Each structure stands twice: as C-alpha cells, then as structure tokens.
Amino acid sequence: MKKDNIAMLLKGNPYPGRGIIIGKTPDGKKAVTAYFIMGRSSNSRNRVFVEDGEGIRTQAFDPSKLEDPSLIIYAPVRVLGNKTIVTNGDQTDTIYEGMDKQMTFEQSLRSREFEPDGPNFTPRISGVMHIENGSFNYAMSILKSNNGNPDACNRYTFAYSNPIQGEGHFIHTYTGDGNPLPSFEGEPEWIDIEGDIDEFTAMLWDSLNEENKVSLFVRYIDIASGSYETRIVNKNK
Q1: 19, exposed or middle or buried, with CB in 10 Å at 0-12, 13-18, 19+?
Q2: Strand order from edge to edge, sheet including 124-132
Q3: Burial 123-145 (b: 16+ CB within 10 A, else e)
Q4: Percent of the chain with pLDDT over 70
Q5: What is the dihedral angle through the alpha carbons of 151, 97, 82, 169, rounded to the nearest 10 degrees?
Q6: Which residues are CB-contacts of 34 (< 8 A; sequence separation ≥ 6)?
Q7: Which residues share a beta bridge with 4?
Q8: Positions of the chain with pLDDT lower than 50, given as ranges
Q9: Is the pTM here over 0.85, yes or no?
Q10: How many C-beta atoms lie closer than 10 Å to residue 13's C-beta?
Q11: Cβ(118)–Cβ(100) under 8 Å?
C-alpha cells in the first residue's frame, strides 16, 4: 500500500462525506484523531460541533431550519475510561454501551448496519482508540451495503497495534461526489501525520472543499498521561 498525503487526498476529493483519521504524532508522544463532516443539502450544512463532556455532539446551527434530525444530530465522539470512540452516527452510543458491558468494538457493532438513506446507503464508519499504561492501539470499522445492494451488510474491521510514529489511517464515507454517492472501498488509507495540533487542524480545514465542508474536530491525546487537547472548527459562526 502506498502512503498518501492527507492534504492531497482531501483536495482531490470534492466530497469525501464524513471522515475519521487516527494515528500518532512524529515524536510518538501523542495519539491523534480527527473527524469532519460535509454536506450537500441545506439540512446537512445547518450544523455545528459543540463540546459535550469529554466528547462532542452535532447541533443545528439554526434550529428553525432543522428538517430531519435522524441522521445528522448525534454524538460523534464519546470517551469511555481509556477509550475514545469516534463515529459518523449514533453508533457512537452503540459502541459505548457495548464496550461498557465488556463487548468488543466489533461485537458492539453487530446490531448496526449502514444508514437507511437509499439510494446512497451511507456506510457507518467508526474508530476506537485505546490508551493505557503508556501504550496506544486503535481500530477502525466500516459497515456498508453489498455494492449498493441493501439486502446485505458487509462488515470490515481493521485493527492497528503499536502504531508507527508519524503515521495514521483515514477512512471516509464516499470516494467522491455522485448520485448515488459511491461508497468508500478497501482498507483505510495510509497517511502521514505531521505538525502540532494547530498546524494539523489548519491543514485539514484548508484542504476540505470550501463549498461542502461543515465542521472539523481534532484531538491530540498524550499517551503517557491521557491528557488531551481539542480543536473544533465550524463553518457556521
């Protein structure tokens, strides 16, 4: 697999949809995650990220213009002890509740499928980061229709132990724009992780399509102490 430059991947795709990045800083001291949302409809674009405890949630920027909240209002990030969960939907809660009952990440998602938004059948993408005793590992998941056929759900989990410094992985919902939207395919993309949290946040935000980007969340977690820094960028202000 070829390692990609995340800025070039984003600049080359006008509509990756929603995306999750997880990796490690070049000095190996911090675990990195990022989550962004994009939108084509006025309902999807009418959103902001707000902090919610140790996590975040989406919120209507203008509540009077909120149409269908079912697939756009959720908690993308929740923290369960030494685990940080990042997803593109309300399966964040499913994973949180399952892992709280000693289920694995993969087991927790068995009750869920892709989103019921035909003809797109948007994949559910999820990630979990585990930091304990100075060690860090993570996993990513995608639940998708069977090549556009909603009669079957294809489930893929990718686990990364002892991540390499300065590297990470990127998974997103769509390979590009279209009608219907083409689902992500293959393994999470292998990318470089560079810069401090402000540099990384600015690079991601500047690389996302100006018309379609909505919100961005970035968190750097100190692997030794578990303390973290967060950045949130909203197009709606």
Answers
A1: buried
A2: 47-52, 55-60, 77-80, 83-87, 124-132, 135-146, 149-161
A3: bbbbbbbbbeeeebebbbbbbbb
A4: 100
A5: 10
A6: 19, 20, 21, 200, 201, 204, 216, 217, 218, 219
A7: 191
A8: none
A9: yes
A10: 19
A11: no
